[in-house]
Amino acid sequence: MNERAAASLPGIPSLIGFIVLIVLISGAVLGQVAHDGSPLAAASIALVPVFAFLAKGFFQVQPNQGQVMQLFGKYAGTERREGLRWTNPFYSRRPVSLRVRNFESSRLKVNDSDGNPIEIAAIVVWQVVDTAEAVFCVDDYENFVQIQSESALRQMAQSYAYDAHDDTKPSLRSHGEEVNNHLRQEIEERLQKAGVQVIESRISHLAYAQEIAQAMLQRQQASAIVAARERIVEGAVGMVALALDRLRAEGVVELDEERKAAMVSNLLVVLCGDRATQPVVNAGSLYS
Length: 288
Hints:
The chain is an alpha+beta fold. It contains 8 helices and 10 strands. The longest helix is centred in the last third of the chain and has 41 residues, at about 210-250. The chain is rod-shaped. The relative contact order is 0.09.
């Protein structure tokens, strides 16, 4: 079932015509009664319920709102043109908001792809684009959007690790844009039958579960230390190689292989140590 336009007339011209018709009929009845006392007045009283029933056809459409109409249970169309409108008085009407809405999911506890328990929540921005599907294809489209969004969030979170140890693999913490796009696709697939469009979805909360938070913090700290040490060693080796090349190129001193090894060892200790070194001055011969 897809949305289609409903049949209705502009409300202001219809209201004016309705008032003019009432005035004309009332004037004719009063004139006839005054002229010959005709029983037409009694018949005109029966027109009052008819006019009251026709007045039920007037309704208002707010900006960014749709009025879903039904005729004896059958879908008759949706009116989106704002302002005062008039339609078949037999139509029943239900307003549906077309405004952009958003909600934040509850904090879900799920396992990532590595099996680690994490807490995750998301913000979803959505909008009704097909009022017929929203009203007739699902029971409660607002509740449907919330439940299916949380289901998609769980499915998405299980596809990634919280923190990948390989830079080539995406993770929840480091690849935010890719993760948000994946979440949006997961939600859109579930909301196709509800006439809802997902405008934006993004992670609003991400953390390890409390029972493993401390252990994971120590793991992250250890990983950071290892990564820092790798950078330090890489830089130290380059500096030692540069020092040896400069000494050899400028002829400052000639070192045999044993002394080169000792110099490399000393420089690496100085450059890679995490504490300040204490220099030792050799006052004798280099080979003593």
